[in-house]
Fold this protein.
Amino acid sequence: MQPTQQNTDAAASLLLIMPDGQHRHFILNLDTILIGRVPSCTIPLKFAGVSREHAKIEIHDGEATVQDLGSRNGTTLNGTRLASEPVRLRDGDRIEIADIQIHFLVVQSDRDEEIQALARDTEVAARMGTALTEGSFGTLVVENPELVDSPGSSY
């Protein structure tokens, strides 16, 4: 399935907090975001407990949903395990896949200012850098740019 570009003034944003404490921030510009262990996923995560195609986030007409794709270890939304049907996401929702926390946020205006505000609000400003890398999924803000081989690499 080839993702399609999203055209909107507001952008969906995901802040991933990895098991080792590193942070990844994605400003999404696609309608469908596939999260899983295989490299062909929009956001590939090579961690124990992550299924090949674990979960999917879809954005249509300004509404975002998350859906567990029958993963072995499940996906939780704000502490509640998801069933197989899509569930609407709201600004600030927390998704958990294995030991990875994913915070869903909505960026309304200037992205750099929103990213910095996000970092302050989630107490990661001291550890999060501002290196921006364009990738097929959107814009990635990485804490340690030297740790990223290339856009779209697995974390």
Remarks:
- Helices lie at 111-121.
- Confidence is low (pLDDT under 50) at residues 1-8, 122-155.
- DSSP finds one helix and 13 strands in the chain.
